[in-house]
Amino acid sequence: VRIRPITSEDLVNLPTRFQKSVLSTAPYAPNQVIVAGEKKQYFSYDYVFGPDSTQKDVYDRAVLKLIDKFLEGYNVTILAYGQTSSGKTFTMGTSDNDLIDPDDKGIIPRAVSTLFSSMESAQYKTRKFSIKVSFIEIYNEDLIDLLGEGDGESRPQVLIREDSKGNILWSGLQEIKVNSVEEVISHLTRGSLNRQTGATDMNAKSSRSHAIFSVTLAQQKFISSGGSSPSPQPDQKSGVRPPSRSNSRLSRRFDEGEWVSVTSKFHFVDLAGSERLKRTSAVGERVKEGISINSGLLALGNVISALGDPNKAKHTTHIPYRDSKLTRLLQDSLGGNAQTLMIACVSPAEYNLVETVNTLKYANRARNIKNNATINAEEAGWNDVEHLQTLVMRLRNEIKILKAATGV
Ligand code: ADP
Ligand code: MG
Q1: Residue 315 pLDDT > 70
Q2: Under 8 Å between Cβ of 4 and 23
Q3: Ligand 1 binding pocket mutation candidate from 2, 85, 86, 346 (most atoms within 8 A of CB)
Q4: Which pLDDT tens digit goes with each residue over 71-130?
Q5: pLDDT tier for residue 231 given thresholds of 50, 70 and 90
Q6: How would you class 11 by CB atoms within 10 Å of its CB: exposed for 0-12, middle for 13-18, buried for 19 or more?
């Protein structure tokens, strides 16, 4: 949970008698939020960041270790949840650009910067990497490619598919290859300028859409099956094909492992405002927007509840991912094959007390999720018939030799 400070906008926009802060943290229980009131309420989380916490604090404590997981091949998802103006976009850095004060940079630019410097580090030097980014928005249950060519109707439609292994694939989406932090930030900035925003009396720039910025990392790494043989470089031309197995003694050491290609996805999700529709005094088109956004967050809540309640989870095998585009897109990031962090953003002002308590309760439920994380590795050459035929021949040969040796 992250509590933002009272902002200068609060001092202008909120009625004076409701401007005071109702949230506090205690040094003796650093993972607790205390809500003031007739009867104090206490909520506990994995991390609590008070109003004085910096962008760097949040990143170093809650996010940094996820970058290593990502480089190891795990899918990672960070969701920012909370009412409009609670600090989701600020925390996530969804609309950061290259002019921003370095201290104010959010999670996305920090993560991308760690990622690029890690790839250069000694630890990962023997691997080959390739990175792509995409940026998608869900607005009225429509999927909009924020990096797509053209605008409006002429943009290609994004579709959600599932492959035979149950992996969720997004087709028709621009995935742009990037080589530097600067390139990533320029796409982030361009995409966020395309985001759907509209004014209501809650916040002039409030956002009624979900935005998902994704980084896809493809890498080839050598997994040694024991011993510490030096890792050979992958063959430039044949891509992931493993080194050929000649009878030469010199190449024996390459037999101590396999080249594997690993693909992992990092989703940075800036969710739509979680406030109830009635507070936005919506009319006409706004009502439809409000309702369909609530359907995405409602479905997310139901999925989280089905995954998070240990009693329910035992009896229900059905998790309602298909109830909204948001949950469908994030299917393999919620209770699936991923490391997931939800950051619940809250305002400390008394004026927002009802929504704040709703958010704290929602985040409390989400905390019960137990993700089942595995690495998305596929053996190099798995789709290469020639490689597989050679492998079969070799295995047959080995069986023959073993049979002969044991006299079976
Ligand atoms: P949301 O995306 O949830 O609608 P924003 O991230 O746009 O909210 O935050 C609303 C306002 O509060 C912005 O002006 C933002 O700069 C400011 N703000 C949010 N969190 C913090 C924080 N931790 N420290 C300082 N200012 C913040
Ligand atoms: Mg926002």
Answers
A1: no
A2: no
A3: 85
A4: 988 999 999 999 999 999 999 999 999 999 999 999 999 999 999 999 989 888 889 999
A5: very low
A6: exposed
Q: If you measure from the C-alpha of residue 49 to the centroid of ligand 1, how many angstroms do you get, rounded to a whole number?
A: 14
Give the H or E element holding residue 65.
helix 64-72
Q: What is the number of alpha carbons within 13 Å of residue 236 lying toward its C-beta?
A: 0
Domain architecture of the chain: domains with CATH: 2-375 (3.40.850.10)
Mean pLDDT score, 167-184: 91
List b or e across 298-309, with b for residues whose CB sees 16 or more CB atoms inside 10 angstroms.
Answer: bbbbbbbbbbbe
CA distance 43 to 124: 40
Q: Which ligand 1 atom sits nearest the alpha carbon of residue 2?
A: 23
3-state secondary structure at position 219: strand
Is residue 239 pLDDT above 60, yes or no? no
Decide which of 351 and 314 is more confident.
Answer: 351
Which contacts qualify for 332-335: CB closer than 8 Å, 24 or more apart? 332/75, 332/166, 332/167, 332/168, 333/75, 333/77, 333/267, 334/77, 334/300, 334/303, 334/304, 334/307, 334/369, 335/303, 335/307, 335/369, 335/370, 335/371, 335/372
From 1, 25, 90, 92, give the residue whose CB has the most ligand 1 atoms within 8 Å, as the site to mutate. 90
Res 131 pLDDT > 90: yes
